[in-house]
Amino acid sequence: MMYIKMTSLRRNKKIIIIVFSHVSASGKFVISVPLGYVMNIARDLLCIAKGEVLEDSWSKLIYSVDASHYEIEPAAVVCPADEYDVQRICEYSTCHNIPVTARGAGTGLLGQSLSNGVILDFSKHMDNIVEIDNDYVTVQPGIVKGLLDKELKKKNKFLPPDPASSNYCTLGGMIADNSSGIHSLGYGSTISFLQEIKVVYADGKLGFASAAKYDDRMKKLGELLALHIREIRNRYPSVTKNSCGYRLDAVIDDKFNPQKVFAASEGTLGVITAAKLHILDIPAYRCLMVLGFEDLLSAVSVVPEILKFSPVALEMLDHTIVRSNNDKASGAGCLLFIEFAGNGSSKKVEESMMACKLLLADRCSVIEYASDEQSIIKMWMARKSALNSIMKLTVGSRKPIGLIEDTVVPPYCLVDHAANLLETYHENKLDYVIYGHVGDGNMHTRPLIDTASTKEVELMRNIANKVFAHVIKRGGTITGEHGDGLARTRYIEMVYGKSITSLFSIVKKLFDPSFTMNPCKKVPCNDLSME
Ligand SMILES: Cc1cc2nc3c(=O)[nH]c(=O)nc-3n(C[C@H](O)[C@H](O)[C@H](O)COP(=O)(O)OP(=O)(O)OC[C@H]3O[C@@H](n4cnc5c(N)ncnc54)[C@H](O)[C@@H]3O)c2cc1C
């Protein structure tokens, strides 16, 4: 058991609270911050919200966890009926200095949707598709990506970001984490598709943003960023995927795109109540090839060569997952999945694939190949179930811990990055898994750590520091898609330096002066050392 002293400003009175932190029997980092000690939050919410208010211990237990290694009990959970509910709850929470944390499916991997305040669950009532047009879709935040995919497919359309969690995760969560997936190489992450957004701010006021039309707070954001354009252009990592900090670079990219400040913001600036996203036609032709390599280094060494053929997906599974997952490939040390797609002619798509295969012929073996929809879906299943397979390696409190998780480097630095990871794991005698979106230079990795051992947890933090420093030195980022959350907010300054990190605090203050919007994520909170 560990005690953390936390100070809280409640109605202008400074109160000292003792926070209890320990590792549970299941190996979760449990943080208990009693908030309901001065008031009955749930009783108040029952009076102001039309949607359900949950405060029974079973519900609180369910919402105290996500897909991370943290556990924090909320004061209450509300399933808002509509935008007006969200406004009233935010207004109430700001007035009483209570954190508000939006939640979709709770599949975030770094503790993003956990807090000791009020949880807003959008998956129950605010989960509609509002409109599907020729090149855009408008949705409420709680819609599950897989359900949206089905509706879009009926119109021969798709929204390319495709997290492996698509059957559960929501659009609100995907925007807030800037999620991507296996096809981000060809099409981009969620941020690339976000056209318009509607939000509720901490004070309950409505906000809106698109390149064409935005509210006063967004206007102030534009004025603020105009003073820092050169610094933003110089300090952001030069990689194709990034969910670290606030994506101010995307806000001031070719034109002012204020809606993009909410992508990767983890619900810390406002609560999303609707979003309009660009959609594409499903490509007419696709083909997928799986290649087997001797080991990880020989597989990642060919990535820059494969990229010259412009695949839409280029993914990797290392030996630990290959062996547990795929009988056909059990002899291979490492697999690469390469997909080509296009609308012009099937011949052109096939030609790219064949040329790529020919180039690599003497360095790998062809494990599988398909150009029909059903076989392609089946082959991708092995890759998509990677994280679930990895979680099966858990034995008691010894588990694959997601802290290093999803670093990105420019693809030509992949060999150097992979060699550094392998050396670090071997030096420290740690078992590990490595897989991911190598086409974007985005590798997922988890060491197996005994979370009950303070020594091993400390070792994991030291390793993360070392790996992050290595990646940043090569122009990379600590997270390509999974975000910062509770686990990695403390590392954001390593990526951007003091000046941009201070700018993040100013942006946070502009949108959320009361610091009640999902605190302790993106901008560290000195009050509560949750990380
Ligand atoms: C097995 C597994 C596989 C995964 N694979 C991938 C993958 O391939 N690619 C990838 O990118 N990620 C992946 N993830 C991570 C995760 O699924 C994504 O980040 C997902 O988009 C989160 O969606 P969610 O609905 O679960 O959001 P939650 O976890 O509920 O919330 C995530 C964040 O979004 C915020 N949020 C939710 N709704 C709103 C709203 N209305 N307004 C403001 N903020 C909001 C929350 O406050 C929180 O900060 C995977 C996770 C798992 C468990």
Structure, described:
- Strand 12 (194-200) and strand 13 form a beta hairpin.
- Residues 1-18 have low confidence and may be disordered.
- The relative contact order is 0.13.
- Helix content is 34%, strand content 23%.
- With 531 residues, it is an alpha+beta fold.
- The chain has four domains: 2-124, 2-Layer Sandwich (Uridine Diphospho-n-acetylenolpyruvylglucosamine Reductase, domain 2), CATH 3.30.43; 129-281, Uridine Diphospho-n-acetylenolpyruvylglucosamine Reductase, domain 3 (2-Layer Sandwich), CATH 3.30.465.10; 285-388, Alpha-Beta Plaits (2-Layer Sandwich); 396-483, 2-Layer Sandwich (Alpha-Beta Plaits), CATH 3.30.70.2740.
- Strands 16, 17, 18, 19, 20, 21, 22 and 23 form an eight-stranded antiparallel sheet that branches.
- The structure holds flavin-adenine dinucleotide.
- The site of flavin-adenine dinucleotide has 37 residues, from strand 7, helix 5, strand 14 and helix 15.
- Flavin-adenine dinucleotide binds at residues 66-67, 101-109, 112-113, 122, 141, 163-165, 169-170, 172-174, 176-177, 179-181, 266-267, 271-272, 387-388, 481-482, 518.
